[in-house]
Write a structure and sequence with these properties.
Blueprint: H1 3-9, H2 15-23, E1 27-29, E2 32-33, E3 47-50, E4 53-56, E5 62-67, H3 89-93, E6 97-98, E7 107-113, H4 116-123, E8 131-137, H5 143-151, E9 153-155, E10 158-162, E11 166-171, E12 174-179, H6 186-193, E13 198-206, E14 209-210, E15 220-222, H7 225-231
Parallel strand pairs: 7-13
Antiparallel strand pairs: 1-2, 1-3, 3-4, 5-7, 5-15, 6-7, 8-12, 8-13, 9-10, 11-12, 13-14
Helix pairs in contact: 1-2
The structure holds uracil.
Uracil is lined by residues 102-103, 106, 185-188, 201.
Length: 243
């Protein structure tokens, strides 16, 4: 692929802007400036450096954000900044979208991709990709509440009962809840339906993906294709998320 085309596919701007970046000497490969926009490169394993920042080539983007509280997932945020503002311009320009939503006050693992089919697969209830939520409750979590969450609860405005795949108490006021679907405010509504209240919520896993231990709140990392291929297939215990 021609170098200017590589930059274009990675979100560095219009074809003209990308050709301009290369011609201006802003792009290095293997430490060497390459200033011919038509220079042919193999994309497999390619890392381009643009204005001093290394950028590994990804045919399709899948990234993991350690979401802080105080950011909205909606396209038109109303009261808080958008989670998109935590991503660098090339990712935004290549059109990555959040994979499902987390509430403004929910923290934790949020994926983004520009692969429409993957987003559909990961958000469709048919595919049952399990998500783990760490819940802090207002009142002590009882055995009866755990049993109800596992058996299924009916949410307001929704006749179809929803149940947790797993519900495990981790402290007097805390539990881990594993859900297959992602209905609006589902965890909060499920806690309310069993007579408790969700005070804080953190998503710790999406499929077999977990937040890398060294990824600070508010920062993102790539999820490589090989990791993604196993992470959402129902296979457990493949926590690495780095690409
Ligand atoms: N369930 C909720 O209630 N909120 C979230 O952000 C995610 C799941």
């Amino acid at each position: 692929m021609q170098l200017a085309q590589v930059l274009y596919t990675q979100g560095f701007g219009t074809r003209r802007v990308c050709a301009g970046l290369v011609a201006a000497g802003a792009v290095r490969i293997g430490g060497q400036v390459v200033d011919d926009p038509a220079h042919e490169v193999a994309t497999d394993g390619l890392v381009v450096e643009v204005d001093g920042v290394a950028w590994p080539y990804h045919a399709q983007a899948l990234v993991l954000l350690h979401k802080p509280a105080g950011f909205e997932c909606s396209q038109k945020p109303r009261h808080h900044p958008s989670v998109m503002s935590l991503l660098p311009p090339p990712l935004r320009q290549r059109g990555v979208q959040p994979v499902g939503r987390l509430d403004e006050d929910t923290t934790g693992l949020l994926l983004f991709s520009d692969d429409g089919k993957l987003i559909h697969r990961l958000t469709s209830p048919k595919h049952h990709v399990p998500k783990v939520y760490q819940v802090t409750a207002k009142h002590p979590v009882t055995d009866a509440q755990l049993a109800q969450l596992l058996a299924g609860v009916v949410l307001e405005d929704d006749p179809q009962p929803v149940r947790a795949l797993a519900a495990e108490r981790t402290g007097e006021l805390t539990l881990d809840l594993t859900l297959a679907e992602g209905k609006y405010h589902q965890v909060k509504r499920m806690l309310a339906a069993v007579g408790n209240r969700c005070e804080a919520l953190h998503r710790s896993r999406f499929g077999a993906l977990a937040i890398p231990a060294d990824l600070p709140v508010g920062r993102w990392c790539w999820v490589d294709a090989a990791t993604a291929a196993t992470a959402f297939s129902g296979a457990a215990g493949a926590p690495a998320a780095r690409g």
